[in-house]
Amino acid sequence: MSLNSYLIVGSRPYGEQVCDIRITNGLISEIGSGLEPGNHQVVNANDLISLPSFVDLHTHLREPGREDAETIASGSRAATLGGFSAVFAMANTTPVADTAGVVEQVWRIGRETGLVDVFPIGAVSVGLRGEALAELGAMAASAAKVTVFSDDGNCVSDSVLMRRALEYVKTFDGVIAQHAQDPALTQGAQMNEGELSGILGLTGWPAVAEEAIIARDVLLASHVDSRLHVCHVSTSGSVAIIRWAKEMGIRVTAEVTPHHLLLTEDLVSSFDPVYKVNPPLRSRADTLALREALADGTLDIVATDHAPHPHESKDCEWDRAAFGMLGLETALGVVVAAMAETPDWNWRTLSERMSIAPAKIGRAVNHGRPLAVGEPAHIVLIDPQRTREVVSTELASLSGNTPFAGMTLPVTVTDVFFNGVHQVRNGELYE
Amino acid sequence: MKHLISVQDLSRADTLHILDTARELDRVTNGGLKLLPTLRGRTVVNLFYEDSTRTRLSFERAAKRLSADVVTVSAKGSSLSKGESLKDTALTLNAMGADMIVVRHPSPGAAHRLAHAGWLDSRVLNAGDGKHEHPTQALADALTIRARLRPDAVDFEGLTIGIVGDVLHSRVARSNIFLLASLGANIVVIGPPTLLPVRIENWPCTVSYSLDAALPELDVIMMLRVQQERMNGTFFPSELEYTRSFGLNRSRAAALPTHAIVMHPGPMNRGVEITAEVADGTRSVITEQVANGLKVRMAIMYLLIGGDVSVA
Questions:
Q1: Which of A194, A414, A416, B15 qualifies as a cystine partner to A424, CB 3.0-4.6 A?
Q2: What pLDDT band is residue B311 in, cutting at 50, 70 and 90?
Q3: Domain residue spans in chain A?
């Protein structure tokens, strides 16, 4: 039998008709029923669902700088175990990914690790300080071929800088991914502003601080006819603004995290910082609006905002704790759990939101491709019947800050093929 | 009850039991003249991350009257000022065998974390956590109101209590609103919208922006301290304008019903939220609040770590 030649037998692509998928030399070479194995290794996938592997447009890999929390290698392991073939690594590292040198380093280590494609995101401004444009053109022209730029963690709050960034990236078909948070309205903010923040005495993070920036940015994107991507949308008001902007023909895309789809602010009553995240967990009404918007496409994609933090950054008082949650290894199960009762949601929609659309936004041309002959063999197999309990110490991430610990997720990623390599088998990484 | 973190953890029966215990302890100690042996051999640690005079002294005296060994750790002059984490401090105190930790901390939820993060086995008593809660102050205030206005009743039905000023930043206000409402009182929160939490209309209280309009209805008026740093123009135009609108002076006090009492958790800004004349006047029960603070703190320590020793 030849290496990396497989016949996946009996799976249901997109949860639809059962068929066999032949993989040869990293590509899908044949699809049909009753295919003969020949010299291909047979992978029995009866009762499993096959999808194009996922693409995460929003991941924090922490390297360089915070290798105690995550490395490109450990984050890559977490990503492939979660069913991803590509991750976009956020720029808020130390040093900041604001030069061609840093993005090339991240890209190169990602290549050497070789478990997923790591696409570095470049900073919009020098040092994420929101003052002067970083060398966007140099990063775009580097070996890393950066197309997505973001100051994530910080908002590009200066209107002129945001306008210039949107204009500048048009030269190389780039996109600005905005962390929408008015800094003045969120000074010292700890949780969603509402009845509960008042009762708990935690400084509120009002929805308007997100919505006002999104409103401004879609108008700026319209004015200069450029591409805007909105990171981690968390409020029903933001959904309404994005829906309007899309109706107006403005080139805006938007993401939602798995945790904002599933979790709500009442968890903050525990004062356990594992629930501390930015933007904060919101109300039940927001969660429902986000689900509906993800189903109807107002929100284009799911992105994890995977944010590893060392234990001590969470094992402390709430207001001293770091913002952020792990996401890569639980994304699929959380999305399936959150969307279970939303109308117009099926495996095809999930694939669109977790693979196809994010690859398009990030211009990752070899990812998010359909399961079809001649396409790259980035394939994830999912057992829709097999539940999985989340145990933080069993995750591949170097950090354990998952808010889903102890939860039972409804589905399990069993196998992952990356460039035709069968590297996750029955939920275990096979390096 | 293992810890006291929030008044919202107390049922009406719990609260009345604490207040009754406070009264009973006061009686058997002859107004505090006699020491009780109840907590002999027990260690109470006062862990104070914020400066405090009255609360720290009150907890120390309460513990000593129950014969506990009392250790006070203040931020200044200890490892707390060297940036030791709350967790490491907790582990240290646990290793030293503290039976109870009385904690004051600037972070909301710090007492909750000490009690529930798995760092220690001690009982935890919240002596004020950021803007969150200050349950013993609210219990002291309830004891004061009860002694003055409802000596024989088991609840505060029919009483209207005004809480005036900076509710947004006040842990005393939060604990009082929820505790006094749970006893059946009508709570009216009075202040400028900039100093009230959003959605406070969903709390068990009504909201008024006019002190003058509310005064004739109040059986109790509780003035909150206004922090000088809030007066820089972001929350309120000026101190003078605040005092004109929300300060309690002689003419406003005269608009209260004749039986009404004036409260303030301290420390006061005389001349800002309350004039000296009113603070020191006949309606003022401010010093009784301090005395009752000692009594309820004894009661809570007794109930949390006093075991099954009978009071009488």
A1: A416
A2: very low
A3: 6-50+374-429, 53-361
